[in-house]
Amino acid sequence: MERQENKVNTNNISGELTFAEKVIKKIIGYAMDNIDGLLTINGGFFSNVAEKLVNTNNVTTGINAEVGKKQVAVDMDVVVEYGKDSRHIYDEIKRLISKDVSEMTHLDVVEVNVNVVDIKTQEEYEEESETVQDKVTSAGKTTGHYISQQTSKATQNINEDVENIQENREPRVE
């Protein structure tokens, strides 16, 4: 079935296009993914606890956005990598937020407030990023390996006992 494109004049259709705060936060979260020197967006105490308990893919954590009909304002606390230029990171954050939000929504980003709440080395960040879930998974693997070893030993002992029993059951006389 071939689809026909109808030329419809949409200028006479009323309505408005709006964006939920969550949508803007997601756009910003995805934009922040590849900024060199930005380790994380800090979501405050409770979200940090939640992230340590469960690995989340929630890119909106720690981003506060005020969304109007034509403009957006953003606030966030961040952790930057030790040795990196914080001013350059801030400029890159503003550039990417403005570019992505504008291209996807046609809203103007009028304000971006970034508060650097901590500076860490890459090693410190990775070490602290290990979650409880990671620890449980690691403990599960260790336990599974131990149980596998014990099962192998028990199976080997049983097989040896079966062989001994079979040897003892062979007829002694013809």
From TrEMBL:
InterPro entries: Asp23. Residues 127-174 are annotated as: Disordered. Residues 134-159 have a biased composition (Polar residues). Pfam families: Asp23. Belongs to the asp23 family. This is Stress response regulator gls24 homolog.
